[in-house]
């Protein structure tokens, strides 16, 4: 079972014992979903590297939100299927900085109104047309949470110029560790009841408080619980439990860990950490 499916099952199972919480709903049919979210692909033209820029643009109805790649324990992570595409080599996404929401004491992370998700495309064969065709499994939340699937179908325009919406979305990415003045990042690992406990200590200036850190394992099938975040002077401390979907033991590569710090001034994207 994927985490997407597991979260839907979990929300449905516990709905009766969560009075006042956001209520789950059955997956929306096509007509209902079209009223809540639309998706289109916008072109951003060629790059100096020989790749092409595009973006998936999701426009949401008022009062609805969707989720970041690490949505929080109560959120539904998006999943992308590119299998219908043609002449598609590699795809690299740049996520704009998301917002942190508090829904009845549960922390979720995502976007309202509109998400422009830049996509850098490397063609499988130079000079051939590129077609982006696929679907996105996503969660939409307001007073109820609805899982659904939206499709896209677009032929990339190789002559397109720079698109202001894509440029703006790229400018909203988190700072790199170097840009944010991160001087050190260490991670201590300890066995826990369900997997591994990771405690990261990051030496960096404040991103603006209160700061929220998000830890991602970087390994498919291993997800993290909500991170406990605190600060001691110039050191940010972030701790989370990593759990395998299979429920078994697993090995962890510290260099694959990804820690995102979301602050009121800016966000920081930290890739990997040393033993601590």
UniProtKB/TrEMBL annotation:
Matches recorded under Pfam families: DsbD_N
Keyword Signal part of the UniProt annotation: yes
Residue intervals of the Thiol:disulfide interchange protein DsbD N-terminal domain: 50-152
Top-rank lineage group of the source organism: Bacteria
This protein's UniProt keywords: Signal
Endpoints of the signal sequence: 1-27
Protein's name in the database: Protein-disulfide reductase DsbD family protein
Taxonomy of the source species: Bacteria, Pseudomonadati, Pseudomonadota, Alphaproteobacteria, Rhodobacterales
